[in-house]
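Before a colleague's protein record goes any further, I have to sign it off. Thanks in advance; the entry in question is below:
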Amino acid sequence: MNQARMVARGLEYRRALAGRLPGLALAFNKQASDAPHRAYANVVYAPGRVVEGVLYELASLQEIRKMDPFEGAPRRYSREIYHIHTDEGEIPAWVYVANPAMLRTGLMPETWYLQHLLAGSEFLTEEYRRFLAAVECRDQRDPVPMPACMGRNS
């Protein structure tokens, strides 16, 4: 959700919008390929729940192909089309969903990773910002979990 990260990766987009996915929940159950203890974000079916995030309108179709290697698609994540709810109505868009072989239970994100999600806080409701800030993290140098709101960056 970090706009600066999009730019740093050389990804061009026209605009960013607040987006919501009803019926899904954020899960940190996608195992990193290079660190078995590290979790990355995923969306999972969850009636009555909502995932909030940033919807980027990419500058061209080529941009999604440029994004795939950063997201580990198609091996680690697949791209699925979901209808994202925005203030402008529903917009069909690609969402990266973790492939089943990459899913694990009992994982936590590292603080640096969660900070990238929190960087998109201007697009989130206050309630969702609080939810993200309360996610328990594992610092990459410290195997002991810690709350994200403590602000340690790695």
